[in-house]
Write a structure and sequence with these properties.
alpha+beta; Translation Initiation Factor IF3; 4 strands; 18% strand
């Protein structure tokens, strides 16, 4: 499980605020299919909200710990039935900008940029 500093957690809370829950955990609990879906969402979004339908606070806390441990993620926030989880994306190789071929730009064209 990853750990976050207070400043990192504040920034992630701000990023997660406008988001809607991406994954919902139903009454069946945290199944393998739900964990797989959470993993997919984290790989594409980094920060996600998870809605849990369980009424027991301690069970939700245990789910958050299990998610973060199994997926090597960091818990950001747990408010009511919503969990916020963060997993940094692996560094993808940066694409080089496509090189333009053709005539070079004139001074007038360069000045208007």
């Amino acid at each position: 499980m990853l750990t976050l500093t207070v400043l990192q957690r504040q920034n992630l809370k701000a990023r997660a605020h406008p988001l809607k829950p991406t994954v919902m955990v139903g009454t069946a609990g945290l199944t393998a299919a739900v964990l797989l879906e959470i993993s997919r969402a984290l790989k594409s979004h980094e920060v996600i909200k998870i809605s849990v339908q369980n009424g027991d606070r301690e069970a939700r806390k245990a789910m958050l710990d299990q998610i973060c441990t199994e997926l090597n993620a960091a818990p950001v926030q747990h408010i009511g039935k919503v969990l916020v989880v963060y997993q940094p994306q692996e560094d993808a190789p940066e694409k080089k900008p496509a090189r333009r071929t053709g005539k070079p730009l004139t001074k007038k064209q360069l000045g208007s940029r």
